[in-house]
What does this fold into?
Amino acid sequence: LPEDFDWRDKGAVGPVKNQGSCGSCWSFSATGALEGAHFLATGELVSLSEQQLVDCDHECDPEEPDSCDSGCNGGLMNSAFEYTFKAGGLMREEDYPYTGTDRGTCKFDKNKVAARVANFSVVSLDEDQIAANLVKNGPLAVAINAVFMQTYIGGVSCPYICSRRLDHGVLLVGYGSAGYSPIRMKDKPYWIIKNSWGEKWGENGFYKICRGRNVCGVDSMVSTVAAVQTTSQ
Amino acid sequence: SAVQADALNGDDPLIREVVDGQDASSSNLLSAEQHHFSLFKSKFKKSYGSQEEHDYRFSVFKANLRRAARHQALDPTASHGVTQFSDLTPAEFRKQVLGLRRLRLPKDANEAPILPTSD
It folds into this structure.
């Protein structure tokens, strides 16, 4: 594995988006992963529609039928991949733009699919496996506890104590080996996370969190997705 | 308590604005907080519908300044301070911008194959 790796340098990560006042982080995490997978499959970076997931994806947990993807009220990245696989794909952002509300009806047009899911899987808790899957398969959908993110401005976040109760969906796009920690007087390896709270938040919309001990549960729910080659229409 | 100045004006990450709670009079502290709140409203283009709402958001903002200082103490390798969410209570923050459904992966979820990492 390379010591440092960043999909942003390789063109697999689009501009930071803003979910607004809507609990649709899960849809941004899922589209980000599929955008990266589609880039690897086709060489083309296409911005995909979160609104399609918000409006049309009501996929439920097979073991808990009452727990379903529910627009601004929350969802799960794996369920979003399942929906996308079943529906036939996701449309482009420009064809189905984000509104930040879930009061609209589903306007999915199968003739305008821009990216399709070939398969998806969960990655083991092991940090080397997470890094290997990131390098091999593209950006990964991950869940995290976001309590420290409300006040985060920059640097490598490495809280002494952080709950691992997952409440936010984000996108893992890379890692670094040398985030300097002035307090601990040493370099700290970190994950690079793309968030969906706009470019004014964090480090131009990105978050760095230290690697090594599943801080804030960042290693707990990691999903990789593969895209099929699609000719957009 | 300490407040990151860069959080407030977005300019110099090396300057830390410190408010000494022991020496400062309560009116000075209130004035400093009001100043931070004005900068926050201007930077993030916030406006409130009524004076009552404004005062409530100011009280939430002050609580979040203290919260940011606690986060800074617990997370010294990052910078914590004022963000676009500084006028939201933790519950409002969770409700408005977080949205991960309770996790319970199905037993038949595909597991990614183990990849070689040594070479």
Chain A has a mean pLDDT of 93.
